[in-house]
Design brief:
31% helix; binds 2-phosphoglycolic acid; globular; 10 strands; single chain
Length: 270
């Protein structure tokens, strides 16, 4: 696992955009590239930087496909707070991805079937190449709350009261309006992606970041399963890094990172 520590949230976004751009640029015509997109406040700055690179530097997403990480149950796609709408409004409507953006169907009366179908759709698309992730203050990723199966597939989850409180800010601070359930890619589904890129900023993420990077692999901190990934990059600002015991070593390791290694952890010449 690579740990990149940056001074500010803006620099976190630049480092994340560098990784995604490397995947997008290397996508072969026809072979495409599959992006995994997370909702939440943290990735927004990364999406804005990717939109800027699209507009100003010609970074093209044509022919690519994107899958959202999760979706509330009971919110139609057009709802202001649906994750499908969030991703469209904050990212995909502003790039040339040809509407090839998929999300679980939170309105299916049989949500468990919608979850299964979604998992199959990801597989049929050839799997996700680069998956952006945030982390909840309780260590969740996607809506995989504490107690989630470490090898679980896309499934229905009950939101933790802490997640409902955290997300109430998007529902005019009314916890009653926050949906109680969601369809989320499972931890096993997420782990199938080629490269996991987890972003965290701010002090309220410091404990979760420390636990995910330096604690045991446990369902109590679902994000700790990143330790099992072949390729995972955790990008944090100083505040979110404040509880990392080995932060000096992580900085040292980055300083000595081989110059032939790209941000996507592949040799530049490959
Ligand atoms: P946030 O959410 O980026 O809005 O903090 C992250 C998450 O809950 O996964």
């Amino acid at each position: 696992m690579e740990i990149l520590i940056r001074d500010t949230p803006e620099e976190v976004a630049l480092a994340a955009a560098d990784i995604v751009s490397a995947y997008v640029r290397r996508a072969l015509p026809g072979a495409g590239c599959v992006l995994g997109l997370a909702t939440g406040s943290t990735p927004v700055a990364t999406y804005q930087e990717l939109i800027r690179r699209h507009r100003e530097e010609g970074l093209s997403f044509a022919g690519l496909t994107a899958f959202c990480l999760d979706e509330y149950i009971g919110l139609p796609r057009e709802h202001q707070e649906s994750y499908f709408r969030f991703i469209r409004d904050n990212f995909t409507a502003h790039i040339d991805i040809d509407d090839a953006v998929f999300s679980p169907d939170g309105m299916d009366p049989q949500p468990w079937k919608a979850a299964q179908r979604y998992d199959e759709a990801i597989r049929e698309a050839g799997g996700i190449d680069v998956q952006i992730l945030g982390i909840g203050s309780n260590g969740h990723i996607g809506f995989n709350e504490p107690g989630s199966p470490l090898r679980g597939r896309t499934r229905v989850e009950t939101l933790h009261p802490q997640t409902i409180r955290d997300n109430a800010r998007f529902f005019e601070n009314d916890v009653e309006d926050v949906p109680t359930h969601a369809i989320t890619q499972g931890l096993g589904t997420i782990l199938d992606a080629d490269h996991l890129v987890l972003l965290a900023t701010g002090e309220n993420k410091a404990y979760a970041v420390h636990s995910l990077v330096e604690g045991p692999i446990t369902t109590s901190i679902p994000a700790s399963m990143l330790q099992l990934a072949d390729k995972a990059t955790v990008i944090v600002d100083e505040s979110a890094a404040s509880m990392l015991r080995e932060r000096e070593y992580y900085r040292h390791r980055e300083e000595l990172r081989p110059s032939w290694l790209g941000p996507d952890m592949r040799p530049i010449e490959d």
